[in-house]
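Entry for the shared binder. Reason: the reviewer on the internal report wants the predicted structure included alongside the sequence.
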Amino acid sequence: MFDGLGNRFNDLFDRLRRHGALTEADVDAAMREIRVALLEADVALPVVKQFVDGVRAKAVGQDVLRSVSPAQMVVKIVHDHLVETLGSDSAGALNLNAVPPVVVMMVGLQGSGKTTTSAKLARLLKEREKRKVLLASLDVNRPAAQEQLAILAKQVNVTSLPVVALERPVAIAKRALDVGRREGYDVLILDTAGRLHIDEMLMQEVAAVRDATQPTETLLVADALTGQDAVNLAKSFAERVGITGIVLTRVDGDSRGGAALSMRAVTGQPIKFMGTGEKLDALEAFQASRIAGRILGMGDVVGLVEKAAENIDREEAEKLAKKMQKGSFDLDDLAGQLKQIRKMGGMGGIMGMLPGINKVKKQLSEAKIDESMLKRQEAIISSMTKTEKRNPKVLDASRRRRIAAGSGTSVPEINRLLKQYQDMADMMKRMNKLGQKGLQRHGIQALLPGGGRQQH
């Protein structure tokens, strides 16, 4: 999400940096470009006007025009204003300070991903917050909607309320609340029914559930791909039902991101989470400062560290570090590394969080990094025997042909993987030989092929 906006902003800031000193005319030209970039990103017109006016007011001040690095000051002003527009980081936290079970009501249109998001949120609360969660489906209109939530609940290891035939939504909600109190649940997530469009019946049903359960949080689940329609949807739900936050789904499919900026500004309610993929662990807390950092090419190193902590097994990482120190890195270890990269969202997912990556995005796209290559490389290693993994030197031509057939790949792909492995193994041997003091003395160049010779 926000790729298009990020690219436009980065081109603009690069040009500003080349100016050195900035005149008021330069700032005005920059504001015009920011306006066009926001409109192209599908941000609502009143929000664009408000944003540009706010940035201009600060950017033409004497502090900017006379500062040592005016372009950097403009970047900072735009960053701070983005954070302000997207909502403060603390505003995005889920409010769980209420008498348990804390009721979280999920609302939105049919097809926005409400049911899946309910299960994702249940998983997140169970895993990260260590809460006991009960899921209840109030969708009695859509065929098999209640069964779908029960299946997803099982997948994330939380309880779903047993289905009672012909029970109406308000009755289900009351029963769920009763079960939640009696059985000591911390959080009750109510997955309400949706419609294909906003209508009176939908609003009345959701309002009746709200009145019966008094939810602490009412989260609007909206598809980021719907653009301006998502803004109208948010406005309607905010006015008729009252929402406390927004969950944006399918943000991985939306490169513009206008809905996020607009919905927050129009409703006055924060975006609390964003769905970053179809898997049940693909739900991220929405933190304005980090998202603003990603838009402006500053990266999200904190997010990357958190993702690593969540996906990487510490014991395995320590074992691997010891093996690397000894120089005894084998193909099984390489397979483990490939798996960890995939778990963290692949090379694209990792690189999107690195600072300054926007500068090299064009080169990366031209280099055509193939994410499916990681899976193929794992398949190649899986098709090897234990002996072959431990000692790749035994891999002659006939063995390579057998592995290619077994993994559905080609011999050149196997050769590339083995070359990659050999380069890593050689680097580790050089690292082991140099030791920490040698590495400090000669620097990273000493690890590159022929690096040791270059130092003499």
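Summary line for the report: The two ends are 48 Å apart (CA to CA).
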